[in-house]
Amino acid sequence: MTDTARFKGIAASLGVAVGAARVLGREPRRALDRRIEDASIPSELSRFEEAVSKSRAEIEAAKQELIERHGPTYAPILDVYLLMHGDALLIDATCEAIRNDRINAEWALSKVTERLKKPLLEDASSYFQERARDIEHVREHLLRHLRGEQRTERSTEQPMVLIAHDLTPADAVHMLAPPTVGLVTEMGAGSSHTAILARTFGVPAVVGVGPVATHIEDDDVVLVDGFAGEVAVRVSQDERRAAEQRRDRFAAFLEAERSTTAITRDGVAISVAANVELPNDVQAALENGAEGIGLYRTEFMCLDSLEPPSEEAQLEVYRGVVQAMAPKRVVFRTFDWRGDKGLRAPDLQARERGWLTAQINAVLRAGTDGSVALMFPMVSTVQEFREARALVDRCRSELNDERARTAEVPIGMMVEVPSAALLAERFTQHADFFAVGTNDLAHYTLAFDHRGDRSAAQSLDPSVLGLLQRTITAASDAQLPCSMCGDLAADPVALCVALGLGYREISVPVRVVPLARAVIRNVDLRTAAEVARDALECGSAEAVRALVLDRLDDDLGTLWKQQGIV
Ligand code: PEP
Ligand code: MG
């Protein structure tokens, strides 16, 4: 193949990578199903048991490697895989299927995993979809050992971009280290374990690209744009050089911007906090000079089981984060694994209500160690938010009855459903603060089929901007703190519109914090306000983008060009 090919996916880990392709398996392995004789059952069982023990050893080794490289934070991702290797529903059931159905181990394993996955896949939430993916990943490992296949090893010669159908987290630990510089997967979502690991290891990644492996050969030059979610293969020398320069510039820029301030040209200080998913990110947030954690996505701590950690276990994690960040504020958001499908607070089952109570208790207790706020996602009606607040009050008074110390924690809400933005003024009477989630707001305003379709570019649609304006105006009139923590604030072009609309607090992914500050230093708020006013009158997101690029070119053109944003 000689022609240039380009693909679009989900930007899962920021940065630019240039390297030689290493294609890891174009399709999920297909099991060779066959029936077996009674006499072969014992040998088939021992073949399966051997595969289980080799696979377990492989994952145990990956876990040790992960702990050595990044401490214990991420070990639960692999613990869940190890647990599955001793799980009666998976392992014993496969042995039973071999015995009772007289079928080979591969077939038995597939039957059992399909059965286990079914109820998970029927649940609309991305959380349970991810748990089904965990089962698939364990099957992948077991099948590999049943077939006696070797795991692909990293070559040691040149920078390498991995191209995979899907990468299990255990393989990610092994493969996302030098000389691997980038990752492209056909499957996956920005919230998958593998995407989390790519972000942790600082490996630029684009996931969910769709069928791509058949278009790429080993050693093809691949460019991974972890900002735009774009992949280019077999590009010209010029394009390759430009990408390499952009990669190096971004690395140098991050280094130089670590401790800068965020004051606009006309002297207004803007607060730039970080969005965090796991405790390890806290150190990076501090290193990048974040002014706090504006969004702590707590659902990411439920990686290792179908249930969240206990109140005490959560308290320990939250305390660590709060103490590390003190005196800077940490805004914890209650578990939001159902946001993608629009299930909201009233949909909570009794069991989930118990989980929520444990979480609220843990946050209220952790609040005594520093500065903490709590917010609810996907709030769509005033009644729903009032109930959420009442639940917090109940939790607090019960804790106080038990003589547990609690803090006065501000209770806020995410504005990320159009109904909340439309009635923002009414919500100001009930919430202590707003945090605007442009990802879901754009998704529900524009009715995309999948949230994966969303991007900061689409969030610039004038309909969404109208809702953003409504929200900030209501908050300002009521003197209610209002930050923006959706990805619109992380887009260096769109951020100017947010500032122009009046947003003065933002929270962005940790690695974007320095870039956001650089944009802010180059903005004049009066000009940005004029541009935002005109943007509201535009006909499309594309027109808004073109308008911003044109009107702010004098102030920001150099920065945008330097960073390859335009
Ligand atoms: C959002 O919807 O913009 C947001 C910040 O929440 P999440 O991306 O976690 O759904
Ligand atoms: Mg959201």
Description of the molecule:
The protein is an alpha/beta fold and about 575 residues long. It folds into 3 domains: about 5-25 and about 150-250, Glucose Oxidase, domain 1, CATH 3.50.30; about 40-145, PtsI, HPr-binding domain (Enzyme I, Chain A, domain 2, Orthogonal Bundle); about 270-560, Alpha-Beta Barrel (TIM Barrel), CATH 3.20.20. Helix content is about 50%, strand content about 15%. It is built from 22 helices and 16 strands. It has an 8-stranded mixed β-sheet with strand order 1-8-7-3-4-5-6-2. Strands 15-14-13-12-11-10-9-16 form an 8-stranded parallel β-sheet. Helix 21 (about 540-550) crosses helix 22. The radius of gyration is 25 Å and the shape is globular. Mean pLDDT is about 90; it is low at about 340-345. Bound molecules: phosphoenolpyruvate and magnesium ion. The site of magnesium ion has 6 residues, from helix 15. Magnesium ion binds near residues 339, 377, 437, 439 and 440.
Summarize the structure.
The chain is 49% helix and 14% strand.
Q: What global shape is seen? A: globular
CATH superfamily of the largest domain: Phosphoenolpyruvate-binding domains
CATH topology of the largest domain: TIM Barrel
Beta strands, count: 16
Q: Which structural class is indicated by helix and strand composition?
A: alpha/beta
Number of helices: 22
The biggest sheet, with number of strands, parallel, antiparallel or mixed sense and barrel status, is: 8 strands, mixed
What's the CATH class label of the largest domain?
A: Alpha Beta
Distance between the termini: 29 Å
